[in-house]
Write a structure and sequence with these properties.
mainly alpha, 203 residues, 0% strand
Length: 203
Amino acid sequence: YGNNEAFKILLDAGSDKAGSDHGGGTALIIAAEKGNNESLKILLDAGADKEGKSGVGRTALMHAVMVGETGAVRILLDAGADKEGKTNEGESALMYAAACGENESVKILLKYGANTEAKYNTGWSALQCAIHWGKYEACELLITHRANVECLEGRSNGCAVRLKERFGLTSVVDYKQHIVERKALVHNEMYRLLVNCKPWVLC
């Protein structure tokens, strides 16, 4: 990918846009994963299957969020890619973004309304995936978007334990309160800065 004019010519000549490489990756998946947004747009305009899956069962959106190709993520979502689509194991794009610590991808998916409470076949949510892999910024993003933390209480799989150790908290519910208080502090500091700043600073 890179020569988009040649790419258009091949598509116009009837090249198979649904074909895949030896790993099952379609042209759309490869373009999304490589961040070749022009090729991605060309393929979408040509009617490429947004929900086509690679050999490991991931869609183009999932591949894009895993490697932090946020431009591709936005293009796919704007084109109607299913943000709630799942692999055979039940993993969603939000779960992959959270587990990989791709925080910008997490933000975008949340902005587009991705379900924080979806669970894959083992019963884990995106928050549990983030905690398991130690992606604490992703945890904060999910919790501030009202991801359920009470479901972690009493679990022995290490998720709640990691959270307590990281923040020195006695319970997961305390962590939820910690986030609420932190947001209030940030809000108050921003207000103070705005009140005290020069008018032209806001221009």
